[in-house]
Amino acid sequence: MTDSPTSVLRIDGQRLWQSLMDLAKLGATPKGGNCRLALTEEDRQGRELVTGWLQDAGLTLQVDQIGNIFARREGRRNDLLPVVTGSHLDTQPTGGRFDGCYGVLAGLEVMRVLNDCQITTEAPLEVVIWTNEEGCRFVPVMMGSGVHTGVIPLEDALAAKDRQGDTVAASLERIGYAGDLPVGEQTFGAYFEAHIEQGPVLEAEGLQVGAVTGSLGLRWFDVIVTGQEAHAGPTPMPYRRDALKRSAALLGEILELADPYQPNGRVTCGEFDLYPNSRNVIPGQVRFSVDIRHLEPKVLDRMEQALRDACARHDEPGKVTVELRDVQRIAPLPFDQELVDLVRQSSQALGIPYRDIETGAGHDAVFVSKIAPTAMIFVPCEDGISHNESEYAKPEDLEAGTNVLLHALLGRAGIADV
User: Fold this and answer.
1) For a designed S-S bond to 106, which of 64, 123, 194, 241 qualifies (C-beta 3.0 to 4.6 A apart)?
2) Whole-number Å distance between alpha carbons of 164 and 179
């Protein structure tokens, strides 16, 4: 990158950190994390706080039919497609203070510093807040960006229910974010997403930034093991149709199916439902989730086949049955080479140590990449821990990543006036 009047431009790291800590007060948990499940009262409070900050920074807001929020900063040429950044504000039930929130507030901080320095970009800039990225209250995951990009039908998303039977549509109405902007109407010239790594690589290598080159593919399944509930005392072991015993044996095989496919193979069983879930009743049904990931589609196919074979081996009609249901599929994908180069060049120009890296987690950027050039910027998190109340990122690393975001956005949007 060549020297320019903006080459010395830097964000206010303390202001960014304070915004993160102020947001973290909403839905705060006893162990220092956050619980702001999508479309709950806590999510509404988080949205209200951040949209207030965006409006204070002079951005204009629009909300679409799935509750995605688009905050626009005008450029000199508003006929150009906007250069967009953002992420999400919803969290896991025992989530941290940085996952998703950092990407939104990094975008806000960029807008604030451009205001401070009275800089106008050639193309407009936007900050987006995506609805229900986490997918822990409503499935599927990355719902807002999925609807925006046409991957998830709007009607299916609005009809999705949580465990209490509450729908997305009803929740959006309740919290006041059932917008009228047609989904997909906002088009992007480019999209950058800043995020904590959620893995250990950057910290282990002493680097402050990851230029994310692409995303692992993801396939989600539900396994339903059905036997018959019976009294725990009078029923001898040989006569039982114990769904949990069969599940335990099956789980041992499933949790080993990624071992031959390292370093990019992943398998996780993270969600379980036991019926009737009573201390003195033999479980009649167990449902659990399976999440498999890899960078190569052919390897994902082999991992899926291994999962199907394991389920078939443990299926015993008339005694204990095993059913495998598809939930969601996201193909592996590369990010836009030109935008990834901008992240690299911005890091180099700022003297920030970085490396190329892949993302093993799903992000809204994965769906957005289907409709617009896309790249991500990672910063390290302590011990690689995320989706956990102890999740932590150093202020200086967050500042470094946001400075890279600032210069990448300017590199794409162009400078109209300094």
Assistant:
1) 194
2) 24
Beta-carbon contacts of residue 2 (< 8 Å; ≥ 6 apart):
none
- List, for residues 178-218, the tens digit of each pLDDT value: 999 999 999 999 999 999 999 999 999 999 999 999 999 88
- E-strand ranges in 89-142 read 120-121, 125-130
Give pLDDT tens digits for 245-270. Answer: 999 999 999 999 999 999 889 999 99
Instruction: Work out the burial of residue 62: count CB atoms within 10 Å of its CB; fewer than 13 is exposed, 13-18 middle, 19 or more buried.
Output: middle
d(CA 183, CA 156): 13
Per DSSP, the residues of 196-256 read: E-SSSHHHHHT-SEEEEEEE-EEEEEEEEEE-B-EETTTS-GGG-B-HHHHHHHHHHHHTT
Q: What phi and psi values does residue 29 have, to the nearest 5 degrees?
A: -110, 160
Decide: 55 and 127 in contact? Cβ < 8 Å. no
Query: What do you get for the CA distance between the two ends of the chain, in Å?
Result: 18
- Work out whether strand 190-196 and strand 374-379 pair parallel, antiparallel, or are unpaired: parallel
Reduced DSSP (H G I as helix, E B as strand, rest coil) percent helix, strand, coil of the chain, to 5: 35, 25, 40
> Which pTM was predicted?
0.81
Token couple for 136: 């822990």
Q: How far apart are CA 82 and CA 70, in angstroms?
A: 11
- Identify whether the C-beta of residue 111 lies closer than 8 Å to the C-beta of residue 73: yes
